[in-house]
Write a structure and sequence with these properties.
Layout lengths: L7 E9 L5 E4 L6 E4 L7 H7 L7 E6 L13 E5 L13 E5 L5 E9 L3 E5 L9 E10 L1
């Protein structure tokens, strides 16, 4: 049975950057399970699994637009240092900001000065081409 819209699939995968550095993998853990068409994985990943059957393997590279999008410099913002809890505040730390409409944004601290904290709200993989090696274990 080939994977198609609505199929539930289980895959093992390995994700790397162009230089071969691994950024994610299911190796040593449970397989990734998702339903095609439910936006549970990035669009380009899902698109490349369509048509594959249990036992099939495929390697593909996604440009940023089919992965986590291009970097957007307007999503790098600075705010007064006092607006953040002092505990754990350091470059690389994750922060969650609640907007007036109730939505929450997750970002990463990139810089701290005496007065300001700069936070990058881009996805950490934004602007990167991603290569995946996928092996389909099951299609339902």
């Amino acid at each position: 049975m080939e994977a198609k819209m609505g199929s539930k699939v289980k895959v093992h995968y390995r994700g790397t950057f162009g230089d071969g550095e691994e950024f994610d993998s299911s190796d040593g853990g449970p397989p990734l399970e998702f339903q095609i068409g439910e936006s549970q994985v990035i669009e380009g990943f899902e698109k490349n699994v369509v048509g594959l059957a249990a036992g099939d393997s495929k390697t593909f590279t996604l440009p940023p637009g089919e992965a986590y999008g291009e970097r957007d410099d307007s999503l790098v913002l600075s705010a007064p240092k006092g607006a953040f809890p002092a505990e754990g505040l350091e470059p690389g730390a994750g922060v969650r900001v609640k907007l007036p409409d109730g939505q929450e944004l997750e970002g990463s601290v990139t810089e701290i000065t005496d007065e300001l904290v700069t936070v990058d709200f881009n996805h950490p993989l934004a602007g990167r081409s991603l290569t995946f090696e996928v092996t389909v274990l099951e299609v339902r």
